[in-house]
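Re-running the complex after MR caught last week's input typo. The corrected sequence lines follow. Everything else is unchanged.
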Amino acid sequence: MTNQRSAALQYAHENSDRFLEELKDFVAIPSISTDPERKADLQQAADWVAQQLRDTGIQNVKVMPTGGHPVVYGESLSAGETAPTVLIYGHYDVQPADPVDLWKSGPFEAEVRGDNLYGRGATDMKGQVLASIKAVEALARNGALPVNLKFLIEGEEEVGSPNLGKFIREHKELLACDVALNPDTGMIAPDKPTITYGLRGLAYFEVRVYGPDHDLHSGVFGGTVHNPAQALCELIAGMHDSNGHVTLPGFYDKVRDLEEEERAELSRLGVNEAVYLDQTGAPALWGEPEYAPIERTGARPTLEVNGFLSGFVGEGGKTVLPSKAMAKISMRLVPDQDPEDVHEQLLQYLADNASNAIRYEVDKMVGSPASISDRNSSYVKAMEDAMEAVWNSKPLFKREGGSVPVVGQFQEILGVESVNTGFALPDDNMHSPNEKLHLPTWYRGIDALINFFLNLEG
Amino acid sequence: MTNQRSAALQYAHENSDRFLEELKDFVAIPSISTDPERKADLQQAADWVAQQLRDTGIQNVKVMPTGGHPVVYGESLSAGETAPTVLIYGHYDVQPADPVDLWKSGPFEAEVRGDNLYGRGATDMKGQVLASIKAVEALARNGALPVNLKFLIEGEEEVGSPNLGKFIREHKELLACDVALNPDTGMIAPDKPTITYGLRGLAYFEVRVYGPDHDLHSGVFGGTVHNPAQALCELIAGMHDSNGHVTLPGFYDKVRDLEEEERAELSRLGVNEAVYLDQTGAPALWGEPEYAPIERTGARPTLEVNGFLSGFVGEGGKTVLPSKAMAKISMRLVPDQDPEDVHEQLLQYLADNASNAIRYEVDKMVGSPASISDRNSSYVKAMEDAMEAVWNSKPLFKREGGSVPVVGQFQEILGVESVNTGFALPDDNMHSPNEKLHLPTWYRGIDALINFFLNLEG
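Corrected-run output:
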């Protein structure tokens, strides 16, 4: 065992330059899933991943069709029935590169400058996908794989994974496993390995308010009908109290309290008010005063207006009294909130507060529950130890504000928890121009994953 | 005198078919002032009006350039210095015809069906302009004109008369008069001649709220910054109390109380809640409960959201936390509110209520005061008698919710009141497809104007 560990680590270090060259090839494929003209590039990226898996000795590798871009699957079950089976999740698609003129080198040139590899998808998440494969390669070249492995690498994460739920459901047997590894979350600093144990869920709605049956002249009718834009503003304004709490009836009923130990752990992350002010550029912070910003984004549910449209919004003025108004409103959910409950709470709030001078409609667009993993599970412990061995520092535990629906889907459909980690850094410009991957952190990540798989062997 | 009256009325009746043919020619010119490609049509309409004036025997007729479409001017000063001088206002431009496919006959075909002439501008206000000219023609063909006359027919009313204020200021001497006649307001029913003695003013603003300095991920930052869309909703929601009163500090301070006599007069109009429900199609009416709808639209100031835009408003969902939000907000003003005061009141309201976690900007776009005319002036009396003689019914006195800035400009720059009337009906589809002019009402209108000019002679 120790033999395989040191041999695998040594192999990874000796082959680091080749690993980087391979990553550059991967990043150079413009697999932008939002762009319908990139279909062939998506296919190419899927084939590239499949070939990597085959070269690594993974069995039964297939590029499987979905309603959209294909899923790459592969497995290695040679560790036997007593060894755990880890399902490794990843995605080979990337965000668009716009605005391209803000990039210092071409988004698909995969240029190394200093300690970083620059390119769209370098950190989100081609680097993370390849780190997993390279860790497996290093182990496979230096002994038998210590665990059974399955790979599920999709091509539609950046467009909201519209076909993934169906795929998982239809291939439940194929994907059966004991735990999932999701390296699509990041670290909070290069010297601070991080495990994300909580992810927020999402409930997303479009609310439309209707008043008069046609646009009116504001001079002729203003003051006699409930202006739908105003009515929707009133409804939205009432969704928070003056302390930033959400007022939907029952919204907090199932919210799991933050334990003192968790709060202490979160405060150790050092992401204080100054960091939030700097990262947002807002004139001041806002929100529930009894929680720190890091708690508000990760451990507390929130409600945001994502968009609002009504009436005349062009240049100049038009004295229209609009006949309708629309808002996109979404809630980030925490355990144990149920997206269905939140839908009902929104409907109840509207029924309680809407005036009889308007009508309204609500479309439910997305509903995914929050997920939280057991921080004391053997899988999380395996990752904790793996990271500590590499960084000489205990990893931090983080709850993340975003939603990673696949984590919830694995919980719901496959009945397994995910170990959420990754080697992306906050300044990696994810989704922005000049996306980059910090290479020293990436190499440490490969080492950590080698350790992780070995630690799982027990 | 009596001789000229009966002769002029008889002349008008005998020439009614020719008057209609001339109006059809006028309506057939697509003088859409909002459409930059219609510049030649606007010029043609101006020339057409100028020729009509010349044919009527009006002197000094000129098509005068402005920064936009020209103004047609003409005068007849033969009644001498002791006779009053009436400035007749009108506009030869029309609204766009969209959506064209909803018209039963082409918008510029000027088709007569039943008692109505259909065409864009038939009632707003080519019919009204020509009624004034034809009344003058009927008088001029049957004696000397009883009053001095000046015509000011502009071509930019439907785009907010951007060059008219400057024109009036620069031609103050030329336009000097004792009273203005503005036939651009209408009647409330074919059997109810109407004089509009009050018009609301307008103050129009764009309010922009800024929060974070870039769009944020709602999962990563939601709950820590004051969402600008939400903040603007909160500010807008607070601009009315639960009874529909505007809460801007001092908003009602200068509002002239409605006198009991006026309220009785307004209620005589018969425009009750059922009429407003029918005309708006709203599920229920809304507004200040202590005032009837007709009082709310005409005699009370109001505040409306004319437009609102923030964040993602396309199909589907995007979990953006927008960096800014914009609303168009306008107030209809009544005597003696000052648009400048209202600007200050809005700024004060925002200063008092905006959170320190956002920034905001306010652009003032339009500011025109309300106007109210002396219902007992000799000019109004002359119109009252003129209408009663034609309809055998005392005209109703109305305050209108809309704003006719030229009335305020005549007051401010020329120091004269306007007699506001006209022969448009509520179902004339002004600004909508199938605009029409009710011909029996139009002919009565010409008769009434003949009487009006003769009554002014004293």
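None of the earlier attempt is carried over here. The two ends of chain B are 10 Å apart (CA to CA). Chain B touches chain A through 84 residues (CB under 8 Å).
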